[in-house]
Amino acid sequence: MKILEDRIRRDGIVREGNVLKVDSFLNHRMDVELFREMGREWKRLFADRPVNKILTIEASGIGIAAVAALEFGVPVVFAKKSKSINLDQDNYVTQIESFTHHRTYDVIVSRKFLGPEDHVLIIDDFLANGCALQGLLQITKEAGATVEGIGIAIEKGFQPGGRLIREQGFRLESLAIVESMDPETGIVFRE
Amino acid sequence: MKILEDRIRRDGIVREGNVLKVDSFLNHRMDVELFREMGREWKRLFADRPVNKILTIEASGIGIAAVAALEFGVPVVFAKKSKSINLDQDNYVTQIESFTHHRTYDVIVSRKFLGPEDHVLIIDDFLANGCALQGLLQITKEAGATVEGIGIAIEKGFQPGGRLIREQGFRLESLAIVESMDPETGIVFRE
């Protein structure tokens, strides 16, 4: 998606250690007009899919998912992260590992809000190793919901998450795929 | 706001200990069409104020703030919660106490995204004791930003947060104010 790639080139900051900071428009300050364009693009890409719910994970997925949901005319459910072990028959619970924060989270969705009747579009801001996304897929599987697709804002194409998800047969639409990046030479996007 | 009060009456669950669960439409499953109506109402109420930024706090404020921001045509900045002490000259940091979770959080906003040029509308889902809100006000004060107003979805009018904020002279618009609630007899809203 050209406007997102242009924005990443303009305002993204590449740091050593494969860090791409996009906090000026995506995940701290949020450019909601850009989110609206992203929502429209996912709506175009998934026009053939009977999406009735968007699933995301706190915190930085929530804003993108909420604005995109307006384009789809469906509600959002966001998975909650908890550091405490939560054994609760009212919730789906799975564990994900965060490379950024070097710890393991419980990810929780209430059973009330996800079930076999749901046709889910999963939306998140980043896809790198795919740990958060695999957690959300595990929860949709446990719920018996159908995953109609996955919409990601920025995929780090040089990390394995996207390839693994596609190999599992999911339809994954990343609006910008970073093929390589370097603090000196900048960002190359996948064609 | 009648449609919000009606929705709270229909789908809110009152539990012992002054707990009002609205997770089916506000803070776990999110009814984004309702959020759009709430955003329009805040836009109407704050039409005379030169808002150029919306400030909220993760996680449950983000969806409401993002959708409301579309009505205002401004970006959102969301404050991040951290349990680690974060001494960082790049950030505004303050502490808030969570009654719900019985612990103290650091609340963090990057200095890059809030400054004296900003005219801020603060938005959040709940106002009870007002701890989170006082933290956001502290950060806007440290940033030298102007607080044009505060928009809350549900205020618990029987707890002191709203009164204290109004006594400080802030313009606070809560779309539903719960005067009293009881698991047996239900909810009474302030006129």
Structural summary, described in words:
The structure is a homodimer of 191-residue chains. Chain A has 191 residues and is α/β, with parallel strands linked by helices. Chain A has one domain: Rossmann fold, CATH 3.40.50.2020. Chain A is 30% helix and 37% strand. Chain A has five helices and eleven strands; from the N terminus they run αβββαβαββββαβαββ. In chain A, strands 6-7-5-4-8-9-10-11 form an eight-stranded mixed sheet, sandwiched between helices. A two-stranded antiparallel ribbon of chain A has the order 1-2. The radius of gyration of chain A is 16 Å and the shape is globular. The first copy, chain A, starts with a helix and ends with a strand. The model of chain A has no long low-confidence stretch (mean pLDDT 94). The interface between A and B is medium-sized, with 31 and 31 residues. Strand 5 of chain A pairs antiparallel with strand 3 of chain B, so a sheet runs across the interface.
